[in-house]
Amino acid sequence: MALALAAGVLLTVAAFTVATRRLLGLRFGNVRMLLAGTFMLVIAEPLMRAFARTVDPGDPGITPIWFFILAVVCALLAGLIPLVIAEILIPSGSLPGPLELAGRLRRHLTRSRRYLRITRILMRHGLGPYLRGRDPDLGAPSSRARLARSLREALDDGGVTFVKLGQIMSTRADLLPVEFVEELRLLQDGAASAPWAEIEPVLTAELGGPLEETFAHFDREPLAAASIAQVYRARLRTGEEVVVKVQRPGITTVVEQDLDIIDRLAHSLERRTRWGRAFGVADLSRGFADALREELDFRIEAGNMAAVAAASEGEPVHVPVPYPRVSGRRVLVMEWLDGTPLGSAVPGGQAGQDLARTLLDTLLRQIMLHGVFHADPHPGNLMLLADGRLALLDFGSVGRLDGSLRDSLQRLLGAMDRGDPLGVSDALLEVVPRPDEIDERELERELGRFMARHLVAGASPDAQMFGRLFRIVSSHGLSLPPEVAAVFRALATIEGTLARLAPGFDIVTEARAFSVRHLTEVPDARRVRDAVMQEALGLLPMVRRLPRRIERIADAAEHGRFGVNVRLFADERDRRHVTGMLHQVLLTVMAATTGLMAVLLLGSDTGPRVTTQVGLHQLIGYNLLLVSTILALRVLVIIFRRSG
């Protein structure tokens, strides 16, 4: 008996689901449909009893059937109303399912524990007031130095992700005062190494077998340890001396938790503090998260190495060769280089000048000619080889530019070289997304003052030059695309590297010399001729058809047959939008019309009697009222479903 009752309930709910989808034209979640169907069943019996009391035993047989149908439709309507109210209050898809909700709760608890730990670290280092909305005191150098030291210590205690964040921040001289940049650079130093017992399982898992199957020799002591990976020296079974970069175990889970915390913290700071909005910390956190996730996949780094090597072909700067066949997501095997890190080996003298010129020339070629460049050329990512050459290391951060951006940057740098503020302003507005409102005259003046300060003869560039250019851009509401921001960040970073190689190195003069050499390699006449040929080939088919089209237009105008055909709503999306609006308006008019007719009929006492209590006009009015209500519910649920 219970089984038959359950089957009946399920069949009724299934029929209710089909009817609801047909009447409202939308699908709803299973839980909502089950609850609404159950409510319909609960209310159906009292409605039928109420309608049955209006029927006399002597009434014709068709009368009870009419009232039974009316009771069923009223019960159906009673089930539709909670669905529409739920859709208005809580749109479909806004609440997760049970399994997703359990997963979110588990992640929330884990994140909350980590969040509390990070908050305690920030409080312990005196950064709590700045999280509550207090603007940092950056007036005096001593205040900046004290705050920078507290920030560096807090990031160091926060762990791998926050250390990496500090390392990225130390390259942003465009945003941070020099005291912060210098203090955060201390985070570039090596981290404590993980024991071999934790590293070996990562290696065997990525290699798909014991180390002996791939390496003839593997040194268990790391050459260096960083926040994300450790580096070992080894020799392949084929005899090549290699360096093996191994990701720290469990680092991905920790990084994802911390990135979520950083994202939430950044949005909170941007919402509650002026300095957070000024720096655009939410956008910075998103860019940092994307870059760090790429660094966690060493296959991307191997591809970056190959791309930069191709862009540096023929250059005197060496790029190590990766071994993709024995590398993976968490292990990267690359060529062993015999040399000394640039951070601890500074040649000085003429050798330093030559190396600085070579490094700048290589980076400018990568940016301006090939569009693939090393985006983080600080001293820790450079090595002085035994033969006197420089080598680039760590390709987790590589920038890419398409042809149009490279052309715009060339025009920008060319206008700077000519000392043309108007040309710089025009080229800059080609590089950045143009806002709706901008004071171009003031932008031109500020760029002119910038060039008069940094780019005139005798002016010596400093580490703040690109930072000032960034601030000019941001003060006018312009936002650099990530690709272009990577270019300026790389140029700002390489300033410090060049100063270490050759104190007093004039980056502006050398950049101008590069421009001259580049123009000599590709003469203006040949460039113009090639451009004209390409454009002419593209226009040739149109030019061939143009005389015949002009003749047909002139003939039609002469004989009075000239007309213009315009196809309205030629786009399918426009047609769908207008059709949907018309359907909605039509449903609204029908709902209002049937509702008005129902009210008029319900108030009428004329006409034949169906029962002793209900007339025919009133019965029709009840049915029209139900139809009007269903149509109105359909309009409402469509409106709120679209707005949600």
TrEMBL record:
Domain Protein kinase: 217-543
Database matches in InterPro entries: ABC1_dom (IPR004147), Kinase-like_dom_sf (IPR011009), Prot_kinase_dom (IPR000719), UbiB_kinase (IPR050154)
Keyword Zinc: no
Chain segments annotated as transmembrane: 31-52, 64-85, 581-602, 622-640
Name by which UniProt lists this protein: AarF/UbiB family protein
Entry similarity comment: Belongs to the protein kinase superfamily. ADCK protein kinase family.
Lineage: Bacteria, Bacillati, Actinomycetota, Actinomycetes, Streptosporangiales
Keyword Transmembrane attached: yes
Species the sequence originates in: Streptosporangium longisporum
UniProt keyword annotations, A-Z: Membrane, Transmembrane, Transmembrane helix
Coiled-coil residue spans: none
